[in-house]
Every structure is written in C-alpha cells, then in structure tokens.
Amino acid sequence: MKAETKDFYIEQDKMYVATDCIIFGFDAGKLKLLIFKRRVEPQKGAWSLIGSFVKLEENVSEAAQRVLTEITGLKNVFMEELKSYGVADRDPGYRCISIAQYALIRVEDYDRELVEKHGAHWYDMKEVPNLVLDHNQMVADALERLKRKARYQPIGFELLPEKFTIPQLQQLYEAIYQKELDARNFRKKVLSHNVLIKLEEKDKSSSRRGAFLYKFDHDTYQQLLQSGYNFEIS
Amino acid sequence: MKAETKDFYIEQDKMYVATDCIIFGFDAGKLKLLIFKRRVEPQKGAWSLIGSFVKLEENVSEAAQRVLTEITGLKNVFMEELKSYGVADRDPGYRCISIAQYALIRVEDYDRELVEKHGAHWYDMKEVPNLVLDHNQMVADALERLKRKARYQPIGFELLPEKFTIPQLQQLYEAIYQKELDARNFRKKVLSHNVLIKLEEKDKSSSRRGAFLYKFDHDTYQQLLQSGYNFEIS
DNA sequence: ATAATAAATGTAATTTATACGTTAATTTTA
DNA sequence: TAAAATTAACGTATAAATTACATTTATTAT
C-alpha cells in the first residue's frame, strides 16, 4: 500500500463497534424476549440485551452468531440485521456504535442451563422492563420489523417447533400482530399458499379432539419464490 | 468511571466506521444514480459511491447528511439507513465497516456546479458501471429496498418536483418497479388515497393538451396515518 | 352414555383489482 | 381556419380476494 493511502486512513477516527441481539421466542401463546443481567459497567446488574464488541478479524454477522451461540448453544438460528444505532453519545463510556440484529428462536430448542448461567430471562413482550442504553428502542424497532416482515415472509415458522398445528400458528400471528384473527379465514389463507405439509399425527395438548400437525415445506416455498409468487398472511 | 470499566473497553478492538450514500434521482423518465470518481487509494480514479468516515463526535446519520450536503448543496434530503456492510475484509486497507444510506433527491434542485466539482455523474440505473469495493452490492440492495418501500410508503414523491403530473408519477413508478402500469388503473389508485392536491396549472411539456399538476398533501397523509390507514401503490 | 371442548369446514356479501375503448383539450400544420 | 396529431382524462364490467359469520366433528372426561 502506498504511503499516502496509509496516511489517509491513519488520520481518521476509530471507534468500538458492537452488536446487540434482540432475541424473540414464542411460548404459551405469547411472544417473548430474552434479556440479561448486565455484567459490566456502565449499569452493571441492569437488564440488557445480549451483545458483544465486534473483533477486528470477524464479520459483524459472525460476532452476532458468536454471541447467540455462546448463550443459547444454538447454531443456524434465524438472525437478520435490524439497523445500526450510531448516535455519538449513546454509550456514556466511549464512542461505540451498535449494529442490532434480531433473532427468532424455538424456545423448546435452546439450552436452558446455558441460558440460566448467563442470568437470562424470558420476558413477555408486553412486560419488558427498563433496559440499559437505547436497548428499549432497539426492542421496539425490532418488534415493528417483525410485525411488518411476518406479513410477507414466512419467518414466523422460525418461532414454532418443526411440527405445529394451525391454531398454534394462528396464536403466533395474533401475538405478533397484536390483533385477533378469524380462525376460518386464517386457516383458508395459510393453506392456500400450499407451503404446509399435513402430517398424520395430532397434537392433543390443547383439546380433546386434537389438532393435526403440519410442517413448513421449505422446498416448495423456495420453488414458488422462483416463480414470482408472494407469500402473505393477513 | 470506575477503572474496571475503562479496562474492559480498552481491551476491545476499534475500527473505522464509514457511511456511503446511494443517491437516487429521477430524470427524463429514468431512475438515476449519482456516483463519483474516487479521490483516494485504494482504487483512486475508479467509480464509487460518495462516502466518508464517521467522526468521533458526530452521529452516523449526521455524517451521511454532511457528505450529501457537501456534494449537492442540499439540506433536508430524504435519507434512510439501508444496512451495514461489515465483512471483515471488505476494504483491503484497514478494517472498516460501512453503514450505507440511500437518499432520494429532486434532480432539478441540486447544485450542478458543486456536483461537477466533485467528479460526479448521474448514471442510468440500468447502466451503472463497476464500482469499488462492495458498492455495486450496496446499489443493488438499495434498489431492492426502494422497490419494496415505494409500495407502502409515499417516498416516490421525494424524487419528483413539488408539482408533478399523474403521468409523470406513473413514469416514476414504472421506473422503480421496472414494469408497465395501466394508466387508468394507476390514476384511479393514486387518487383514491386522497393525498394529492390538484392544482389549476397544467404542464404542457409533454403533450399538446397538457396535464394537470398535483402536489403531495403531507398534512392529510400524516392525519390518515394516525387513523391506521395504509398507503399502497400497485 | 353424556357433557364438554376445541378443531374443522363452507357460503354469501363486500371490497378490491384488473382489463379494456372512447372522448377531450390543445397545438401544429396544411 | 380546418384538419391532423397527440397525450390526458375518464367509466364500466369482470374477476379475484377478503370478510363476515354458524354448524358439525372428533375426542376425552365424567
């Protein structure tokens, strides 16, 4: 590299880059958020999203995956960038920008022990306490994103077990949209996309009659996408 | 601040944070992109988006506004975060992440002189040349975002002069969606939202008869938003 | 055998989207 | 000054999607 190039860079300011994860779950018919007791100052002991500084040699998305895996023990979790939080004085310590990511996990899957070790807690989305820094804003923004995105992309399934019933799926959408849906119309709409595989088994945990289990058909969905199809729920 | 806090931060890696602007315009019925001859290594002289390093004392969004104002002379331009580009080796110089922002500007408004001084050029979106680093990816991502967002938020108007005709508006949407639209249905749909104010004047630049000019009614739009209304075009 | 419970289904009414042809206003030109 | 040319403006009929709404079914517990 030429000397002038190096000089140009050297004159510039460097800062910390962090990533914070808004981790959503779905349990007992409710949308949940996984938060943590903060272990470092400032505000040690306060509730916080989980996050980490990004290391020089890792991608931002890798940093987020690393954090998530450390905490939950899960790999291949759905995670997507939300937005950056780059206000100069957002962190009273040093200049630090954060790239927030939101993750959708199956509550049944994750390693409870690991989570408990980290002082974590699943909060009902409607009862999220005060969080440090701008984390409450991140959560609010992530919920908005989830609401919008669930409409036109089948990401809701990431929050359900692999096998689920239509009434469970409806509960999930009701929790995300914060709105009641008509069971007959919901079922019709969902099934009309032809991306659910009906299984022989029933789930009898919530009714005497039991409800048939379904699986999301990723392959068919991918094929449909290719042919210009649009997923949409409600 | 406690010593332990300081230590915790000091151990972490710092990096350069940049912002790059994807600047869209609309002229002669076509969607345009404003790009620049790069003035610094690496790849001095190559085509590039305009950008800047973020300074310690400024917000990321301020940095983007600063760049845009330097180049175009415009303030209060529509600009919104696209996403971050945080792959570890994206810039062969030093570790640098970029927060890309896309801007919509009225081509008529900007200061041509200033733009020419900066080695800028408006390219037709369909003829964008090779850009440095990951900038072509940024442009592609921004176009996708614009396509999606124009559907449910009236951001297209940011690209038109304050007064515009329905056929002009249609041309714009056709350019964004890359798809022809039916003039009768388009007019019906747009007017049904009741967010356009019809003026007495006509624009005769593109027909003998002339087409009536309209203005976007920001106030009414804001009111409608409050009452749970959804803007949607096509 | 009966009661209780949530699952599963269909149809009619309304709203929204699509497809498509004709007339109107104006300028240019013959 | 009449005719030709050109884009703007408009309406209706059909199809598709959404909404609203009530009954029957499968199963377990009593």
TrEMBL record, chains A, B:
Organism expressing this protein natively: Gillisia lutea
Gene3D superfamilies in the cross-refs: Nucleoside Triphosphate Pyrophosphohydrolase, Winged helix-like DNA-binding domain superfamily/Winged helix DNA-binding domain
Ranges for domain Nudix hydrolase: 14-145
Entries under SUPFAM superfamilies matching the protein: Nudix, Winged helix' DNA-binding domain
UniProt protein name: NUDIX domain-containing protein
